[in-house]
Design a protein that fits this description.
Elements lengths: L1 H9 L1 H5 L5 H19 L16 H15 L3 H14 L9 H4 L11 E7 L1 H4 L4 H11 L3 E5 L2 E3 L5 E3 L3 H7 L4 E5 L2 E5 L2 E6 L6 E7 L6 E8 L12 H26 L5 E6 L9 H7 L1 E2 L24 E5 L3 E9 L9 E8 L35
Parallel strand pairs: 1-2, 9-10
Antiparallel strand pairs: 1-14, 2-6, 3-4, 5-6, 7-8, 8-9, 10-12, 11-12, 13-14
Helix pairs in contact: 3-4, 3-5, 4-5, 10-11
């Protein structure tokens, strides 16, 4: 009994946590994965797949391993888990500043306009059009930036639709610009529709109320990473590689489009990109992320299925001169797998250095603007 007592006293952690060394193995395995993620993410097309992990995992897993390390008195595991927690924090999508900024929001000034951005999930293809249009109308926005104005053929392709009659009936006070499976609806006067190098973006310049200054709106839908087919098929990986190249072209084009825009800009839509995906670095170069105004520590906007809203794929960004005063996510009421983004936007005082000497190329309004990629190479949207 005395010997047993010594063994228990000397190996108390092992008695409570038998085989406690597994914590170090788990921490080490996660550290190796995180190191590969930090090196390969955004640099190797295949890493688009591992980067689809829900971003909160990058803090949740090491945060779980830390107390387990202390319970097993494994200092090495605690150090590894702590380092992984610090290094993975930027991949997590957590916005600590939102807890402060979200609670101290002054009222939007006079002249601010309300903008909503929403991926409609194939434009009420699987829902009743009545509630869908009633929901849209009930948002009562000055400007709508809507994605997926098309129907899914479920083979990697889309079928463009023509619902313009119902749009005119539902939004009699709005002007509509339709192209590339995207719609911009606006109560504000449309100053111009401008051609973009990004083929999944619709730029519409709007005259703000009062002084008529221009706000450039970029309605964005970046291609999704994969096709929903078996990962045992070679076509699955060919599609990932093709779409990685498509996404890179879209981001390069969008970066050039925004950099060449002489007006304050609002860039919003479905980027199919989380904080854990390498393309988040490109998003950071586009403009200022407004999400801290949402007041959410862990903002999310997309759910793989009901109850699993762990990803933020939708973003609102601004360039100098455009100011976001309010930002919130609204429940889509089962009409889409994406939340609605709603923001209040105004313009800062005009910059005397701004030039208006630029060339405009106009879109024709209508539904004949097909998505740019033909056939099965068209990227499916989330």
């Amino acid at each position: 009994m005395r010997t047993a007592g010594v063994l228990v006293a000397g190996d108390g952690a092992g008695a409570v946590w038998p085989g406690g060394g597994w914590v170090l193995w788990a921490a080490g395995a996660w550290a190796v994965f995180l190191a590969a993620h930090l090196v390969l993410n955004g640099r190797w097309w295949f890493w688009l797949l591992p980067s689809l992990l829900p971003p909160p995992v990058f803090v949740a897993l090491p945060a779980l391993l830390l107390p387990l390390s202390w319970a097993t008195e494994d200092l090495t595991a605690a150090v590894v888990a702590g380092a992984a927690l610090l290094l993975g924090a930027r991949q997590s999508g957590l916005v600590p500043g939102a807890l402060v900024r979200g609670k101290h929001r002054p009222a939007p000034p006079d002249g601010a306009v309300r903008v909503v951005s929403w991926n409609t999930q194939h434009w009420c293809q699987s829902t009743d059009p009545g509630p869908f249009y009633a929901f849209l109308r009930g948002l009562d926005a000055d400007v709508y930036l809507l994605q997926e104005y098309h129907h899914d053929e479920f083979d990697g392709t889309y079928r463009l639709i023509d619902d313009e009659r119902r749009l005119r009936e539902t939004f009699p006070g709005h002007r509509a610009v339709i192209a590339r499976g995207l719609i911009t609806l606006s109560r504000l006067k449309v100053a111009a529709t401008v051609e973009t190098a990004a083929r999944r973006t619709l730029r519409v310049d709007l005259e703000m109320p009062g002084d008529g200054r221009i706000l450039a709106t970029f309605n964005v839908h970046i291609p999704v990473q994969l096709r929903l087919i078996s990962p045992l098929r070679a076509d699955f990986y060919r599609a990932v590689r093709t779409r990685a190249a498509d996404r890179a072209r879209e981001y390069r084009g969008l970066l050039g489009d925004v950099a060449g825009c002489p007006h304050p800009a609002l860039i919003a839509g479905d980027f199919n990109t989380t904080a854990a995906i390498g393309d988040a670095r490109r998003i950071a170069r586009l403009g200022s992320d407004a999400v801290a105004l949402s007041g959410r520590l862990c903002p999310t906007s997309w759910q793989a299925r009901p109850g699993l809203r762990w990803w933020r794929l939708d973003w609102v960004l601004t360039t100098p001169g455009a100011r976001v005063h309010r930002y919130r996510f609204r429940d889509p009421r089962g009409l889409s797998d994406h939340s609605v983004q709603e923001v209040s936007v105004s313009l800062a005082e005009p910059d005397p250095r701004t030039t208006t000497d630029f060339r405009i190329r106009h879109h024709d309004e209508g539904t004949h603007h097909a998505l740019p990629l033909p056939g099965k190479d068209r990227p499916a949207g989330q």
